[in-house]
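Supplementary Methods, section 5.1.

A reviewer requested that the exact input to the structure prediction be made available. We therefore reproduce it here, unchanged from the version used in the analyses.
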Amino acid sequence: MDTKVAVVTGSNKGVGFAIVRALCRQFDGDVYLTESSKTSKHICCKGMTAITFDKTSPQIDVGRGYLDLIALETRAEGRPPANNGEGKVCTRNDHESVVRLRDFLKKTYGGLDILVNNAGIVFNDDSIPFVEQVAATTRTNFFSTLEACQVLFPILRPHSRVVNLSSMSSQMGLARCSEALRARFTDSNLTMDELRALVNKFVETAKVNKHLEAGFCGSSYFLSKIGVTVMSMIQQREIDSQGANDIVVNACCPGYVATDLTNHQGSLTIDEGAATPVYCALLPPNINSPRGKFIREKKIADWKM
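The structure derived from this sequence is encoded token-by-token as follows.
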């Protein structure tokens, strides 16, 4: 039997790292950590530097063995990549990085069992023009997550679990959209192409400061997380329609966690924030619910107008 394997994106710190640490203790398989790489002064986008466990190379204690870096792309602009393992160095192109990761997993493990999409950004600096915030936030939080799923989903094995980190902000953002848009975002027949078009419309109307007039909420982060939540629901419907064997996709909120994302103002520790994502990642085989839901505090949360 092939060794099981999990991948957690954006997991070199914060909630993502706590998810890795918890999976190391609870998941019967290998866990790969991917690092968020700083690509500019203001934007922190997800990279695909993977880390695997090797007790002979003690770098970071995560509770089960130690981490040995395998560089699948350059770690940061202007810095040479670490290359302490068998991995190959990728370009800065996100798509190529995800493809390399997919090929590595397929060759090494024959597939993927758990995918946790944690990587994301938020802007806490109002001096950055809103249009720049919109472009970067939707690209990183929504479009890059969707693209990673499209590349990695074909190697998901039966009984795989996919967890897309969203936020309670998606519910808050939904409430601040127009009635017409709320109806669209809660439509159980909405397709992925239609969702992508809605997020693109937000980006385009924001460029000319017409996004509020078009019915969207005023926060790029809120809107990006609406996209992640609805994306997860659509993904489950698509997977079910393809007859997949017990592949489960859920979106979840980790809660208000004290991390860089919240300027360390959150009330939860990173380990407390990891509890719900890990719950979703370790849902037992052949579970009927939750599937394609938005989860908060290990419970299905409302997603309605």
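The first strand starts at residue 5 and ends at 8. These observations are discussed further in the main text.
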